[in-house]
Amino acid sequence: MRDIIQIYINGEFVTPHGTELFDLHNPVDAEVIGRVRLGDAQDARIAIAAAKGAFKSWSRSPKPERIALLHRLHEVVWAKKNELIEAIVQEFGAPATRAYWMASSAANSFLDAARALEKYDLIRKVGTADVVMEPVGVVGLITPWNSNVGFICNKLAYTLAAGCTAVIKPSEMSATQTQVLLEALHEACAPAGVFNIVNGRGDIVGAELTTNPDIAKISFTGSTPVGKSILREAAATLKRVTLELGGKSPTIILDDADFDKAIPTALQVGLGNSGQACLNGTRIFVPASRKDEAIASIKKHFASVQAGEPLAPDTTIGPMVSQAQYERVQRYIKLGLDTGATLVAGGEGHPEGLGGYFVRPTIFADVSNDMAIAQEEIFGPVLCVLTYEDEAEAIRMANDTPYGLYAYVLSANEERATKVAMQLDAGRVAINGAAHDPDVPFGGFKQSGIGREYGVFGLQSYFEPKALLGAVL
Ligand code: NAD
After folding, report:
1. DSSP 349-379
2. CB–CB of 285/316 below 8 Å?
3. How far is CA 291 from CA 281, 288, 408, 435, in A?
4. pLDDT for res 82
5. Probe ligand 1: pick from 171, 208, 450, max atoms within 8 Å of CB?
């Protein structure tokens, strides 16, 4: 049992004013592994005041000072990598290789932001003016449970790089990871108040950040419904917003693809992070003329999809994060069956020999694009296979969704795949399994969000341009 009873304000671990206790579970067996004491609106207000105080000098700090802090933050988080991996596995149930990636990329995001800042002109000449890029102010950072440490580090890195200060509201379900991370961040000896962390509920601490007039910007990663409510609430004080929301991303397998290459990639991007990733390619489009071949190939390659204990070497799918998430996935699998889709693999209930929040990785065929399982974000390892007659129909169906976060195109001909990619409504399109690049903008079209994170586009979103006319600099 690990009890987390403090939050972090103005460079110190402090006992929150809030008294509510929230249970933390190991998703492998649903056992309670700890409790977190949640902050309340008063704690959020104290943290905002600390960040506002720290903004006065941090906003004027020179580039080298910011870059030096980002390098220190990288070092301290990297040094705690193994503890972080342990916490991610225990609290979230990520398979070991995924947990390793999560912890490493979290640490590396400070270097990514430092690199972006180094190249970024804080003052530039535009026409007759000098344009000064001013940090926007105190930023509220709100993160989900599916990669909590990664989102905290990425958002915090670019916040600090821009000269802003932060109040972070992490997912209340990820308090163990947050605590390990916080102990690391504290060791970087950042100026007091430049970042503050308040564990708490979304509708209490999150809501205070969203409405408080001293918060200039919200950077939120989470579900589309909550993102919309944040946008509405933030309008009252005209906060800047970056919203990274849900997805229902298409994977288009073109008719020239080698299925022995394309299908493993489609399964990997569809089921990564145990299906609990916003960018999963959950709608797989295959040519109608090769449907039987595609299904046979999926069955063959599905043998390597293995639900199991996160630390077992052959595990690729861990448990869902919570009972609520387990039930949500069950509901959608039942809905798929009830609406006439055909099971290619998986189905309802737990995988054999596993309990807790494990679900059976599931693939449906005979899915039409208007079915709920093809339109709504499930956020679990449930994939739909859809067929198309020609390239134009594949593109039309791929774009026929309220979301537009990511898309994947698989083909033997990269020029042809590129032409298809150009016609897809998505913030990122990966051709033939191209890997994530942390310098490249990330974010959604349509209801997948507003704005971009990562690299220079991410950094840019923390500035207000101020044009000085007739100035002598
Ligand atoms: P969620 O929207 O329920 O919660 C996200 C965060 O918002 C949590 O910290 C929560 O406490 C807080 N919150 C809840 N209500 C709030 C309110 N009224 N005001 C302010 N904050 C509030 O999402 P989740 O279930 O934690 O995460 C899963 C969702 O996140 C999925 O929809 C997924 O697609 C999305 N996601 C998007 C991205 C992306 O980059 N686009 C990445 C990861 C996850």
Report:
1. SPPTT--TT----EEEES--TTSHHHHS---
2. no
3. 18, 5, 18, 27
4. 98
5. 171
How buried is residue 128: exposed, middle or buried, by Cβ count under 10 Å (0-12/13-18/19+)? exposed
Angle formed at CA 282 by CA 242 and CA 87, multiple of 5 degrees? 65
- Tell the residue nearest (CA) to atom 26 of ligand 1: 144
Give this prediction's pTM.
0.98
- Reported as a pLDDT band with limits 50, 70 and 90, residue 398 is very high
Tokens read off for 266: 């489609």
Q: How confident is the model at residue 1 (pLDDT cuts 50, 70, 90)?
A: confident
If you average pLDDT over every residue of the chain, what do you get? 98
Domains of the chain: 2-245+448-468 (3.40.605.10), 250-437 (3.40.309.10)
Q: Which amino acids bring their CB within 6 angstroms of ligand 1?
A: 142-146, 169, 171-172, 202-203, 206-207, 210, 221-223, 226, 229-230, 244-247, 278, 377, 379, 405, 444, 449
List Cβ neighbours of 354 (8 Å cut-off, separation of 6 or more).
307, 308, 319
Predicted pLDDT of residue 437: 97
Q: Quick check: 179 pLDDT over 90?
A: yes
Residue 337's Cβ-count burial label (10 Å; 0-12, 13-18, 19+) is: middle
Q: How many Å apart are CA 18 and CA 438, to the nearest integer?
A: 37
408 within 8 A of 419, measured Cβ to Cβ: no
Taking residues 215-235, what's their average pLDDT?
Answer: 98
> How many residues comprise the chain?
473
Confidence band of 220 (pLDDT split at 50, 70, 90): very high
Across the strands, what pairs with 21?
37
Residues 6+ apart with CB under 8 A from 379: 146, 246, 275, 276, 325, 328, 329
Taking residues 407-427, report their average pLDDT. 98
CA distance 227 to 278: 14
Residue 65 has pLDDT above 90, yes or no: yes
